[in-house]
């Protein structure tokens, strides 16, 4: 072996890499370290309780009692009140609706870790590491002696030379009264230099130092400043010449030492100034000389004490002025936050590009026509209805439409409580639009309608060319005011330099939504010659388009809930937020956070040219109503959004009339506020009218009064199989409307069930209508609906069949992605509820598989942030009832173990590995909530969780390790993520569980690795150690205390370990394990050595910068944990690359041995900087 080694390292020959590799592996396998059984941490804490409590640094040995706690954070929204109707939860009968409402009403549930800021790397410490621009200038003692007199004189004469201020506690100054804790008063102290060079320490009641101080301490009479902890911690006293003392106390040891150092520095200057004055006095002036001698004798009496305090101040000043060693490390100055956890925010409403559209004016050239406005005069027959449909945006590129601005919500309280007034909402003039998927083909389309007066061509003629305006007002329209006819349209391309179109006349051939789409996409925009063929209305529509600022005031959402910025006293117009129809794409979907329950109804087409039931059916109008019963005397619900100028809510809505059209197409949109709980009787009722346009004076008065005639009925039940109907429907029309019409059913063979109904045109589907649901409490997904429906049956008392439930769980894998994201908190809450109530292992495993599927879908769509928000804020463990339910952390751990078995589905196990952080985070939060809510946090650590859970945790760790150590080549991302997630989980287990048990799990983890492993496994192992050792209470976990036998209680009485003995590694488990692993890694290749050294170095930097351990005593105690590092470095000095680590030039060290030179560099086995044997 020795011959082989010398051959590999002979001078002048290149190193054979394969030979070195074989050699390294051989040494590694020979030096495989044995596992050290860790101490029983909880028993040691109990056995050494007296020693720990008597230790002056006992905070370094004990975990704080308030280490973690649960908290409830009030849900913050944009609205002035809750979006959930007052009695919605009481009215809800469906389990899915109930759980959705609970989700939107619940507050956030957090687990707060008091010292979490210290659980990351040194760059994430709360006290930020200051960037060191340059090293301070070193001042040596020989220079200090030469310049001492000059410096003292100059510093003493500078006005404001030394200043300091801060809060201190001032004790009672009367020495006749004993000083107690209660006698201390908090005062603001300000150290100031007077004009004669003397110093005063003034104190005030607050920080306003411009006022007269409450008192002053003249430091000219002070003879010394010493520490005094007899009465209060961090206290010090100022001894005066008249034998009196001033007792002060700081908030921390660091502040106390700063005050003592500063005050002693001033005393030193005063002393040296007095000595200088004594030496330079005039010997011929006897009286002045005697005074100086008298003063000197006064100083001489306190000289020993002052000299001692001055010397201590000098030592502290030098130590504080020194730069911490690790400031010089280049890694300490790098802004690397790659290991930092992402910032997690609670769920909130998010919008796309927000645009403000404001209508300023609508005017026509017709002299007698006046634009509609809220304060304008009453207009004549030519009056225009300018309503909220002007705010319609069609996004055709993605086939997405942003609907018209909404007015109010039937079941929401603002209007009823007087927050908003109905009159302020009748004439909307501006709206806010949100565009989630911007693209070039976004148009703002305005439709203008006119009161029905007959033929649109005849009525529009006065607006299109010059005519006698006196003839316009002769048409009687008072009885047809509610019937409207399409008049003109306008469109604006928002992406092409705000291209503005004129007002085009619709005519009878340009009236439907389909026509608008064809118009825009038939190259009318691109070809002006085609646009010139369209008839144009002589008028002007003034519109302003602008961006929306974050603090935009006085607007309401689509359900008419005012924002927090809403001011009811303002006279500014109300702005209406538009409801966007977000595309059904998972990546554009956000989890619902508010209650919203709207149904949009679109009558499309009516084919009435072949009907024979009615004599006249040409000017056809549709009346839409929403009813909850089919009884004859049942009134429609007042839940349809009204049009401008009318009530906020109405019982019916009317579509625009097309003159002399038997097969009319409609473009109207009717918006309905749905009840919280729907049932089978809820339906839409369509009533058809023939509207008479005969304005002739002939005929009787009775005949002229008949304006509309009913020409048919149709209805559409809202629920089908328990879900809201949203697809396009073709429904028949009846000539009559008998009571109980919803119960009519065709039985075949000419038979039917229910009342007699006279069908128009033989019962053919003559009406085409579509609906669109925008609801956060109803789902359109059949699989999700069936799952919740079955859960409701079992909760209501029905016997739960395992096979049946498994079937519904498996069907959830086919759930639509956007539905899964939209209802994410509600779905996960229900799945965890089923998990805790499962009585069969198969059910629990399938629940976990569904959760894995949901988590994987979120990650694949780039929506990991939603999952993190859920775990941190929304997840809340079910109340624990030992006889009925189980805990999430125990059941989830068991299911994870089953899925990780080699015989399980490898696709599911790979997803579990890849996204394991979610499951471990749920385990952590469930454990924390379980301990707090069941008052188990007060128990001993080994009594908090049952033995079954300890076994489950140990099993999941053991099952996880083969996946990490064997799949790192085939599935590197999954194994890497699982390794990191396991480390985070183990680290947090120190906060909740038996710490000795957690040490054993770390041992189980380490036992799966061996020297000579591939580099990737070394990276995994040291990443694990890095995360675990960054625990906020890493120092107490290592118990930096004497473990000697007998009555040895102090470090000065103990001979410290400078080597990694088994006893040291057992008593100080984590640091011993880390040092042993670093020592093993130093026998590996250069890359492995760098990884190990980096982890150890960063941990040492963290200790140095941790403000909890800033004092010298704390740092000295920490240093005792790393004493074996010296022996480790000495043994491996030839394998540590000093030259590459140091940021400053150093002399290249060399070691001469057997005539060969080996540079002190990692992996540098060649000959560099040769040194002769005589000169070495």
UniProtKB/TrEMBL annotation:
<feature type="domain" description="C2 DOCK-type">
    <location>
        <begin position="596"/>
        <end position="774"/>
    </location>
</feature>
<dbReference type="Pfam" id="PF14429">
    <property type="entry name" value="DOCK-C2"/>
</dbReference>
<dbReference type="InterPro" id="IPR027007">
    <property type="entry name" value="C2_DOCK-type_domain"/>
</dbReference>
<dbReference type="InterPro" id="IPR037809">
    <property type="entry name" value="C2_Dock-D"/>
</dbReference>
<dbReference type="Pfam" id="PF11878">
    <property type="entry name" value="DOCK_C-D_N"/>
</dbReference>
<feature type="region of interest" description="Disordered">
    <location>
        <begin position="277"/>
        <end position="298"/>
    </location>
</feature>
<dbReference type="GO" id="GO:0007264">
    <property type="term" value="P:small GTPase-mediated signal transduction"/>
</dbReference>
<dbReference type="InterPro" id="IPR001849">
    <property type="entry name" value="PH_domain"/>
</dbReference>
<protein>
    <submittedName>
        <fullName>Dedicator of cytokinesis 9</fullName>
    </submittedName>
</protein>
<dbReference type="InterPro" id="IPR011993">
    <property type="entry name" value="PH-like_dom_sf"/>
</dbReference>
<comment type="similarity">
    <text>Belongs to the DOCK family.</text>
</comment>
<dbReference type="GO" id="GO:0005085">
    <property type="term" value="F:guanyl-nucleotide exchange factor activity"/>
</dbReference>
<feature type="domain" description="PH">
    <location>
        <begin position="161"/>
        <end position="268"/>
    </location>
</feature>
<dbReference type="InterPro" id="IPR035892">
    <property type="entry name" value="C2_domain_sf"/>
</dbReference>
<dbReference type="InterPro" id="IPR026791">
    <property type="entry name" value="DOCK"/>
</dbReference>
<dbReference type="Pfam" id="PF00169">
    <property type="entry name" value="PH"/>
</dbReference>
<dbReference type="InterPro" id="IPR021816">
    <property type="entry name" value="DOCK_C/D_N"/>
</dbReference>
